[in-house]
Please model this.
Amino acid sequence: MARHKKVYRCSSCGSTLPQWMGKCPQCSQWNTLVEDIVEEETPLRTRDARQTRPMVLSEITPLETFRRGCAIAELDRVLGGGVVQGSLVLIGGDPGIGKSTLMLQMAGHLASAGMKVLYVSGEESAFQLKMRADRLNLDSSGILVYPEVMLEKIRDAIDEFSPELVILDSIQSVFSSQIDAPPGSVSQIRHSAGILMEIAKGKGVTVFVVGHVTKDGWIAGPKMLEHMVDTVLYFEGDDSGVFRIVRAVKNRFGTSGEIGVFEMKSDGLQEVKDPSSIFIHGLGGDVAGSAVMATFEGSRAFVVEVQALVSKTSFSMPRRIAMGSDVSRLAVLLAVMEKRAGVYLSQSDIVVNIAGGFKVTEPAVDLAIVMAISSSALDRPVSKGTVCIGEIGLGGELRPVNHMESRIREALKLGFTRAVIPASNHESVPRVTGMEIVPLSHVRSALEILS
Ligand SMILES: Nc1ncnc2c1ncn2[C@@H]1O[C@H](COP(=O)(O)OP(=O)(O)O)[C@@H](O)[C@H]1O
Ligand SMILES: [Mg+2]
Model:
């Protein structure tokens, strides 16, 4: 039996300290240290049985990654082409967003294809799961359900029934009797994740772990869990709306950044076959304060609408609100507009929103944000059928963005006929019939398009 000792762990960066401090010396966050119990022996102890001799890289025979499609194409895409055998996947999101629904749908499809599935539910009873399976019209005959929260019992059930896929819903509800801390605490989550990793890697069982995220971030064990697992999927989107986006923020078996789009219906999450069209309303041109851009996520382009509202402030400090984009980037763009293009908005409140609950974090959205803000400030719409794609540098210069051709083609598919892009991208992008290209080199000339 391993000996345990008490340490203090930072719930923000995961580093451990022998004594409590107000501020974490690693990440400089205040009041993030929480009590934790760890084994005194080195974590390598559990790996003694594994091959640890150094080997010549070229002589290693690669193990074939065994994937299985789960019949939900958007989920397969996010996972990098299907469920990978022996992988540990974390699926996170706000409560009520659809994690359990998606997991049960996936379990149903894989079980019908002959896979042995164990659904461990620490939150819902077997009866509730059955009701959901019926509502989703799933063939639940191949799914074993186990309403249990004790980690040791869950491990025994996995040993006894030898499932190929285990779904643990959720990591916050599970606890181990070896750890003297409540369920959901950093030490419990870390311990459970370690055991699940051993099950996944040691037995080749695929494990999906559900984790709840609150509006302020993780309840416990944030980055630590992300580091441990192979793949991290997050649900995004407004849980009051109908669309849900599942994004791979980390994937050891595929492209990270890949997204899948779903619609929540009474019979579960349905794939959206043509996701671009749901994030825009028409071709624009009628309302001031809106600009359309084509963003590139994972391996495909999406056309999204950037909305802005500029209004006279009644505060001493004007408000800047960004929904679906980075608020500090917004501040930078406003400074660039002021300094490089002479647009003064220091007396205005500014709200920027990416329509449809989509999140765009890439800088290629800069030009569309600037156009939407200017359009609202001047009360002049961006002309109909125009997409604006480009990063803006601190000097006001338009910088090239990647995958420009795919972005332009996606916009063309939806009926857009004019693309405002950085001049530096112009040469490298082949002519696309039906799309007029407007190359720009400076943010000043971008604003001239409107005035
Ligand atoms: N009886 C129902 N009819 C239609 N939709 C439902 C029903 N029950 C739940 N839902 C939908 O499923 C969502 C809950 O999904 P769930 O998978 O339980 O979320 P999570 O596991 O992420 O907390 C609800 O927000 C709702 O949209
Ligand atoms: Mg749930």
Notes: The first helix runs from residue 73 to 78. The first strand starts at residue 4 and ends at 10.
